[in-house]
Design brief:
Helices cover 41% and strands 15% of the residues. The chain is built from 9 helices and 15 strands. The strands form 3 sheets. The chain has a 6-stranded mixed beta sheet with strand order 3-6-9-12-14-15. Strands 1-4-7-10-13 form a 5-stranded parallel beta sheet. Helix 5 (80-96) runs antiparallel to helix 7. The longest helix is centred in the N-terminal third of the chain and has 17 residues, at 80-96. The termini are far apart. It catalyses: L-serine + acetyl-CoA = O-acetyl-L-serine + CoA. InterPro entries: Hexapep (IPR001451), Hexapep_transf_CS (IPR018357), LbH_SAT (IPR045304), Ser_AcTrfase_N (IPR010493), Ser_AcTrfase_N_sf (IPR042122), Ser_O-AcTrfase (IPR005881), Serine_acetyltransferase (IPR053376), Trimer_LpxA-like_sf (IPR011004). It comes from Aliiruegeria lutimaris.
Length: 268
């Protein structure tokens, strides 16, 4: 008897493509057969595969893989939005990261994608009132992937984190849909203040490597934050901000900066 949503394996184009790619990967590199089968081909849905991958990566002597897998399975079963967000993140990574050529790559190899899906399970736990378990997942994501996302942060779908080393996203941060960010980005506070203290990032924003966006400020939709910038004030929509401290230096240059991934500005 099929479990809820298992029928989606026959009508799920993302999962069907992943399975096709997985079979091709095994044919091309038989030594990866065990990894590919255990992580992908053994499972009947993307959600089950993600539960396995998350539990495998985050397990430790303090928390077993079995317990973490049960938690992730429960999260995906209760909240179908988690699977939908994972598919959007996968497609975003394939479309925007020039190093990504197949949908299976983020699941198997890209820590940005793996950390984001782990965060999503932790965020589900947080919303369920299971704060200590959510904090545990946050800790393990930080230890395993070098990415620290507070489980209370609110992050939309279609997120692409390229390279993904040293990402920090604070407790009251909000990130919209279809946002792209590179390594060493911080969405942080400005001191010891309590309450709503972290940035609010609009849809389709591109945040360059090493950018620091600090305080309860807003970055408008479809804007660009240049690499290495320190943003301390609101940024309007459809502009480029750069510098320390950041200033508006021009328009965004295109309608969808997070999709185009064009980080150049000024005359070329």
């Amino acid at each position: 008897m099929l479990e809820p949503r298992d029928h989606l394996t026959t009508v799920d184009p993302v999962w069907n493509r992943i399975r096709k790619e997985a079979n091709e990967a095994v044919a091309d590199e038989p030594l990866l057969g065990g990894l590919v089968h255990s992580s992908l081909l053994h499972h009947r849905s993307l959600e089950r595969a993600l539960s396995y991958r998350i539990s495998l990566k985050l397990a430790s002597g303090e928390m077993s893989e079995q317990i973490l897998r049960e938690i992730a399975d429960e999260a995906y079963s209760v909240d179908p939005g988690l699977g939908a967000a994972a598919r959007a993140d996968l497609v975003a990574t394939l479309e925007r990261d020039p190093a990504c050529h197949r949908l299976l790559q983020p699941i198997l190899f890209f820590k940005g994608f793996q950390a984001m899906q782990s965060y999503r399970v932790g965020h589900w736990l947080w919303n369920e009132g299971r704060h200590d378990m959510a904090y545990f997942l946050q800790m393990r994501v930080s230890e395993e992937f070098g990415i620290d996302i507070h489980p209370a942060a609110k992050i939309g779908r279609g997120i692409m984190i390229d390279h993904a080393h040293s990402i920090v996203i604070g407790e009251t941060a909000v990130v919209g849909d279809n946002v792209s960010m590179l390594h060493s980005v911080t969405l942080g506070g400005t001191g010891k203040e309590d309450g709503d203290r972290h940035p609010k990032i609009g849809d389709c924003v591109l945040i360059g490597a090493g950018a620091k966006i600090l305080g309860n400020i807003t970055v408008g939709e479809c804007s660009r934050i240049a690499a290495g910038s320190v943003v301390l004030e609101d940024v309007p929509a459809h502009v480029t901000a750069a510098g320390v401290p950041a200033r508006i230096v021009g328009e965004a240059g295109c309608s969808q900066p997070a999709v185009s991934m064009d980080q150049m500005f000024g005359e070329r």
